[in-house]
Amino acid sequence: MPIEFEFDFGQLAAAEPVQARPPLEQAQRALGWLGLRHAVVMDLFRLATEWLDEEALLTRALNILEEHLRAQAGSVIMLDRQEGDLYFAAATGPVSDQIKRFRFDRNEGIAGWCMETNRVIRITNVAAEPRWHSQVSQQLGFDVRQIIAAPIRVGNRMIGCLELVNKLALEEEFEPEDEGIMAEAAECIGILFGLRRGGQR
Question: Rounded CA gap, 77 and 160, in Å?
């Protein structure tokens, strides 16, 4: 089942009401987002030419996304099929080393919901979000204000969730257009994983 994300060029320019932006500015904004999506995909697929272990591959992918989307931190949460729970396969940001020791139930939190529903999710205020699993950030003392996440699949098999946390600028938020970028980035990561594991057989 494909990721449930529909792309509409008309909606790309309509993050704000149509009357709020002149037509030329709308077109420039839309082209800017399309260029950003192309740049993210190209940078991710360049990783296929590098000899990286899985954690290094995922970390590099997170670095690429953080740079393009101006995010403070990111993680890739994977499903442990033997234990049946979720773990942090890679993480970047201020608490990246500490966060990797945490594991949680596959049905918990934003990642669990994202994987269960196979949908991209964008939350601009996690404090008001009932699906947010706050224990990890509380124990680490890391303030999570906003989050955007996308499911990762290899073929038809769900393997994990790609997450970015907090825009670098306090006044910024993840935007609706970022959902499309995250969906495509997660798809690229799934393809890279499939190629890598297929090459190891």
Answer: 5
- Cβ atoms within 10 Å, residue 192: 21
Tens digit of each residue's pLDDT (9 = 90 or more) over 5-19: 444 444 444 444 445
- Tell me 80's DSSP state: -
* Count of beta carbons in the 10 Å neighbourhood of residue 141: 9
DSSP string, 123-182: ES-GGG-TT---HHHHHHT-----EEEEEEEETTEEEEEEEEEEESSTT----HHHHHHH
Q: What is the CATH number of domain 13-199?
A: 3.30.450.40
Domain map (residue ranges) of the chain: 13-199
What is the 3 state secondary structure string of 24-66? HHHHHHHHHHHHHHHHHHHHHHHHHHCCCCHHHHHHHHHHHHH
pLDDT tens-place string over residues 135-153: 778 888 899 999 999 999 9
More confident residue, 118 or 29: 118
Q: Residue 30: its pLDDT value, please?
A: 64
Q: What is the C-alpha separation between 21 and 10, in angstroms, rounded?
A: 13
**What pLDDT is recorded for position 144?**
93
Predicted TM-score (pTM) of this structure: 0.81
Pick the more confident residue, 109 or 62. 62
Torsion of CA 161, 137, 148, 53, to 10 degrees: -40
Q: Are 137 and 94 in contact (CB under 8 A)?
A: no
